[in-house]
Design a protein that fits this description.
The longest helix is centred in the C-terminal third of the chain and has 19 residues, at 83-101. With 121 residues, this protein is mainly alpha-helical. It has a 3-stranded antiparallel beta sheet. The model has no long low-confidence stretch (mean pLDDT 89). It contains 5 helices and 3 strands; from the N terminus they run H-E-H-H-E-E-H-H.
Length: 121
């Protein structure tokens, strides 16, 4: 069973907390591909949030390929082989396009990523 919660005292907005928790649940296997997620309204009611907050989290997760909405059937964890890797791949493509447009060479682009990864440890 999916257990999500929102801590209003954290600086991270509620939609971002929900998004992170869904991604973590998929990463740790708590949510398997094809698992049905609660409706926006049910999750919002259960957490005491506005439906728009949950809808934003779902919209961002869907844009990243982590979940998919199947009309009236509901919202499900994507069956993509690895939605997290797919999301990372899209981020890498966007980064590459940005550094190319800035005229940054490959070695410098890789150094920037390496420095950023080290800084986030």
């Amino acid at each position: 069973m999916l257990s999500l919660n929102v801590d209003q005292t954290l600086p991270e907005p509620p939609y971002a907390q929900l998004r992170s928790q869904v991604v973590s649940a998929i990463s740790d296997g708590s949510l398997a591909p094809g698992a049905k997620l609660p409706t926006v309204r049910a999750l919002a009611d259960g957490l005491g949030l506005a439906p728009g907050t949950v809808a934003r989290a779902y919209k961002e997760l869907e844009a990243d390929g982590v979940i998919e909405t199947r009309g009236r059937a509901g919202t499900f964890v994507s069956f993509a082989e690895d939605p997290l890797r797919s999301q990372a791949q899209r981020a890498a493509v966007a980064y590459t396009a940005t550094v190319r447009s800035l005229g940054i060479d490959d070695d410098e682009a890789v150094r920037l990523v390496t420095d950023a990864l080290r800084a986030m440890r």
